[in-house]
Amino acid sequence: MSDIVLSPKTPISRELLLIDGVGRSGKMLMAKLVSNFKRVDYFQVLLAIDHVPVLSHLGVMSEDNAAAYLRLAVDGCVYDRACGRGMNLRPSDYSCVAKATDYPDLIRRTVDPEGPAAIAKFNTTGRIPAFLSHHIIPHARLFFKMEPNTRIIEVSRHPMDVASSWYHRGWAERMDSDPMASVPRVQTPHGDVPWWARDYADQYYAMSPVDRLMKTVIVLTRLCNEGRAALTAEQRARTHLICYEHLFDDPEGHVNRAAAFIGTEPYANMKAVLAREGLPATLDLNDRRAKRAQLAAMVSPSLMEELAVLCADYERSWGLEPLS
Question: Could you report the per-residue pLDDT of 7-59, keeping only the tens digit for each?
Fold first, then answer.
């Protein structure tokens, strides 16, 4: 590793909101809701937010250099958004800015002055840049190092549902071959593997694709659980944990608590936003049991047992009716 140390740049904004969770945990849903809070800029997706912490974790970058580079990457996105550049207008995308209550104000930026005037307006109106992230809570220290005012909304979902969703998205086969799988991979004597599989690379390709998927969900879930447990008291105060299942039961309550955590409030049309996203709704426990049966027919018993432990822990933590 080079001994060159990057110097942190002057921040464009001293606010940063991350909506995080394991893949398929429901964080995209929460990001759409949070993005309809007053002052919260409609969320963006920036791969550097997911990847730079991993590079630091692997020792490819020092923590100081990772924090400095993250600031560069985040500020580039914040500036582009502040002056109306690069806004996603693809209607079917979750991150399409047309879903924002303040969409007219966002679009107006495309004709407003750019440069320092755009930054000044962004900050004087108290705008909060928001980004979707994938299982960065184990690396939360890096974000608090970059910006102590970082806030993280962490969405958790029942591990059985997460595993089933990964399977039905095709990730058992896609993870190792799909060019759209934007995951840092590392070279090992046994072949290249996703970064989280480095410690069991000797077993990775001996597993069936569905076992590799299940092991991935187990490892990432454990990493996130351990990451939350390792937060300092100050960091925990800047982290808000949401249970996906409870969000469906009481969306208004969860939305109001999330808004209070950020220091804002929902727009007046939040009930319409919730209805658009299908909330509230009832989640059927029998659906989860059917998912378990489907996975159990394909996944090795030892991995199903590991997943069952995580499921039971999750159910106890959130007071959910157990699978069995």
Answer: 999 999 999 999 999 999 999 999 999 999 999 999 999 999 999 999 999 99
Sign of CA dihedral 21, 314, 215, 296: negative
Question: Using CA atoms, how far apart are residues 214 and 309, in angstroms rounded to an integer?
Answer: 13
Structure tokens at 258: 């999330």
Any domain includes 66? yes
Q: What are phi and psi of 83, to 5 degrees?
A: -110, 20
Backbone torsions φ then ψ of 152, nearest 5 degrees: -125, 125
DSSP label of 40: B
pLDDT tens sequence across 258-277: 999 999 999 999 999 999 99
Domain count, the chain: 1
Phi, psi of 190 (to 5 degrees): -100, 0
Residue whose pair of structure tokens reads 């550097």 in the numeric block: 48
Give the domain extent around 66. Answer: 16-318
